[in-house]
Protein: DeoR family transcriptional regulator
Organism: Sphaerotilus natans subsp. natans DSM 6575
Amino acid sequence: MPAMPLYTDLADELSDAIRRGALRPGERLPSVRQARASRQVSAATVFQAYDLLESRGLIESRPRSGFFVRAARASAVAEPLAAPATPESTEATEVSIGDLVMQVLGSTRDREVVPLGSAFPSPHLFPLRELARCGARALRVLDPERLLEDLSAGNERLRHQIARRQALAGIAVDPDEIVITHGAMEALDLSLRLLTRPGDIVAVESPTFYAALQALERHGLRAVELPTDPREGIDPDTLAQVLSRHRVAACWLMPNFQNPLGSLMPEERKRALVALLARHGVPLIEDDVYGELHHGSRRPLPAKAFDTAGEVLHCTSFSKCLAPGYRVGWVAAGRHAAALRRLKTLTSLATAVPSQLAIAEYLAQGGFDRHLRGLRRQLATQQAQMHALVEAHFPAGTRLARPQGGYFLWVELPEGGDALALHAQATALGISLAPGALFSAFHADRRLRRSLRLNFGHAPGDARIAPALAALGRLAAAGGTACPNPAESAQSACR
């Protein structure tokens, strides 16, 4: 992604200050002369930044007075609420969702389908040509002996680059505890296999990422689901109650921009979570694949940052933030690193070397943070656009999450809504969505039945998105049981 001009950097800095409350509604921004002097930029740059903020609806110009922070328009749409914990909802549950996942996700592979149900961001958001050039350069100077030396742990240069980035973000990770994997899913799956045996209980969020449920089902494990707040994630007090009632072998949680809710656990909750698990001797498998996709000024710390006992296995990848399809992930496994490296050797032996070399070269060149800034801006813009479209077209009583990162929007339909029925009818129009039933093994909570996840990480400028959301709104208003024209093709429905 090309470097952004100075005025966009200034506009984004001020946008973040407004979001954080450092600049309050009605407060006057620095004059153009003041901003020019303090920022060491031209007056034209300041004017362009203020024009951009005005176009975003964040500030307003007042004749002969200057620029002021605009009062935020109150949203008519409430946020979803976490389901209360009950003895029934936190019982250990056998997991069986594989058929439903394959049925729902099969349509997202079709390019003609509007990808609102996809689990992946658009590849158009990533510097794939530059990565290819980096890979070609790295392969030209490859030392063949390194192919054997780097097999199970992964490329040494890449592991040092990762550890360096983690240190700059406030996370102490030794390169030797990092194991490079075939994407984040292998990192997560290896961690799960290392820590559990068939029949064990694993604590997960509710709703949770369906691939976590698939992994539990595949390995013969049982799930205990923790009610998860769409804003702040799980409550450590609820987890403490679960740990007192069940012998939990491990937790699989996503504290940063949880999939599907988009929730961000506050740092004090993360600290309490890690301390609680350490007291009980329960390891944490932390899925942090969306941590780099924050909309604020600073990457939120993962739970790993508070781990002093080596019991947090921090799993993430480059797939969501840099290189989709390259399948390069890793796990910082703490005291479990040696055992996890052995398990990696016994299963897949190694991760593809060319992908590792390309990413290591790209990181060494220093353009990653510039790419991330542009990617975050684009995703934040697309989230705001989708939020506005859902608010405009979906029926009264719809609830909407307000994520601070990632690229998923969690929608809760009004009483009587049926997301599975909505999915079936939307599919007939060439529109995909991910119904809430995908994200839980415990189906007693009716709100999951009427909830859905939408993906706002689509290709920039995709003209199909707005008509597709309008069509979904009409279907939702009809209760998800009527289709305006089921025979209509995806192209005509969403043109």
